[in-house]
Design goal:
Number of strands: 6
Number of helices: 6
Helix content: 40-55%
Order of helices and strands: EHEEEHEHEHHH
Strand content: 15-25%
Structural class: alpha/beta
Mean pLDDT: 84
């Protein structure tokens, strides 16, 4: 079960990781953060899924776009991933984003324009892990409820403390 993080406890959850990432640094970092890792051959290669948060991530290196023949296969892989996962993120990895990498990003954006795919450029495994866990945590049920409650309290506080509301109350009493 997911736990909303507090100062003393880290947030942890179950994560389904593609077996293709079993020896990847991302799997090691997630495990190091005390997440329960479940490896699966049934998910698309390069995928990481946070089932209790309802988000899925696909990790793709810009180097996979070095050949036009490979590019078509990568696009098919992304399309399949998009059809399976409604709330999906593509983590596009490049150690340095130069002209070629930005062109790859632009090509992907144009290809999937209008879809629900969100693309995050990342540089290393630490950024990948941080991005995934941050998104998964804020979209988890306990966090969403907590944020909604805090927004309601802040809104009520603003309304109660607003000088404009005081002026409006006085105007209403003057009219009666």
């Amino acid at each position: 079960m997911e736990q909303a993080g507090s100062e003393g406890r880290r947030w942890k959850t179950t994560v389904i990781v593609s077996t293709s990432l079993q020896n990847h640094e991302v799997a090691y970092l997630l495990s190091n953060q005390q997440h329960r890792i479940r490896y699966s051959e049934c998910v698309e290669a390069g995928s990481v899924i946070f089932p209790l948060s309802g988000v899925a991530f696909m990790i793709i290196d810009t180097m996979e776009f070095s050949d036009m023949r490979e590019e078509a296969g990568v696009f098919e892989k992304i399309e399949k991933f998009l059809h399976v996962h409604r709330n999906s993120f593509l983590l596009l990895v490049a150690s340095l984003y130069g002209e070629k990498e930005w062109k790859v990003l632009s090509t992907i954006q144009q290809r999937f324009l209008g879809s629900s795919l969100r693309i995050l450029p990342v540089h290393n495994s630490t950024e990948i892990t941080r991005s995934m866990t941050t998104i998964a945590q804020v979209t988890s049920k306990p966090s969403i409820d907590s944020v909604r409650d805090r927004i309601s309290l802040a809104r009520a506080h603003i309304i109660d403390q607003s000088p404009m509301w005081e002026v409006l109350r006085k105007m209403q009493f003057d009219c009666e």
